[in-house]
Amino acid sequence: MTQVMEKNLEYYLNLNYTLLVNHIVDESGSYYYGKIVELDGCHSTADTVEELIKDLEEVKKAHIEIKLEFGDLIPEPKEMPSGNIMLRMPKTLHWKLANEAEREGISLNQYILYKLSSK
């Protein structure tokens, strides 16, 4: 018999949510802006990264507490993709891309990555 884990405040606080931090310099000065990607509305600003992370932990806790109180859905972090994909393509396209990669002197994988990221 498997035991079902209770998804309480402690459960959510221990999940590895994605933290996005940007250094901002604008007319108001220099500061850090951060957000928890999976939790809409969980964002803050601070003068230092350390202060920002502390603030975001408090915001995350309050956000989750409110969601739990009202029985709202709380998104969980997704696993990072492996970076590997299987891709099927027409032979003529494969031939064209392989030739272009050879002309550039790079591997087919590098060339396809370049083409995808330059759009």
From TrEMBL:
Residues spanning the membrane: none
Which Pfam families did the record assign?
Answer: HicB (PF05534)
Q: What name does UniProt use for this protein?
A: Toxin-antitoxin system HicB family antitoxin
Organism, as annotated: Paenibacillus radicis
